[in-house]
Amino acid sequence: MQKICLFFSILLLAGAGNAHADEVFLVTMNTSSISGDSGSLDFSLSPGAGSDQSLTATVYNFAGGSYGGSMSQDGNATGGPVTSGSPLTLLANSASQLNDDFETFDYGNSLSFLVSLSGPALTAPDGIGTSSCEFDFETFSDEPGSDPVLTDDPNGISGLIDISPEGIVSSAGISPDATVASVPEPASLWLFAGSIGFFGAAFVVRRVGELSNR
């Protein structure tokens, strides 16, 4: 029984390593203090200096507030407007330093969205870059995007996700009203549930065997 448990433990750990290839984050922000105001939001992804690897950020499941009717994009930005429910994809590589989606926006009481990160810079980092890749979420109180709101950052950054040249991911809510939190992948949850089920079954079999030998 111990050998079987060890075998399945190795399989589960190996599967868990593969399941964490991509990273998903939930960004939430309390905007009740400016509810009803018009402004703008910016989603951007920049590659690390000296990096030769690409990184993709997909923004989706946006909720709260409403699209203001105007969108502009730079670099490798496709899809959107994300604030009206259409997924947005940003691709950062050595050939594209500015990858940006800018949308006018009418604030509600809150907003939230998911960010999925994928690509070699995350899944197979080579450590060559001299600075991190960075996803930024910026909030402004005006449609041109010159007046930051709900954040003290001069560039309007309210939340960010940082990917080091070694592929280490960290996140932060720059605004006191924003949170950026990692979300477990469904595959990881299934693996966790499966491991609990397996070891639970193994424990029951062992107990039945012990009772029958008494």
Commentary on this structure:
This protein is of the alpha+beta class. The chain has one domain (21-198). 23% of the residues lie in helices and 40% in strands. It contains 3 helices and 12 strands. It has a 6-stranded antiparallel beta sheet with strand order 5-6-3-8-1-12. A hairpin with a 5-residue loop joins strand 10 and strand 11 (169-173). Residues 4-20, 187-196 and 201-205 have low confidence and may be disordered.
Q: How much of the residues is beta strand, in percent? A: 35-45%
What best-fitting shape do the alpha-carbon axes yield?
Answer: globular
Distance between the termini: 19 Å
Averaging pLDDT over every residue, what do you get? Answer: 84
Cα gyration radius (Å): 22 Å
Count of the domains: 1
Count of DSSP helices? 3
| Physical arrangement of strands within the biggest beta sheet | 5-6-3-8-1-12
Order of helices and strands: HEEEEEEEEHEEEEH
Q: For the report, how would you describe the main beta sheet? A: 6 strands, antiparallel
The percent range for helix content is 10-25%
Task: Name the structural class.
Answer: alpha+beta
Note poorly predicted spans. 4-20, 187-196, 201-205
The overall strand count is 12
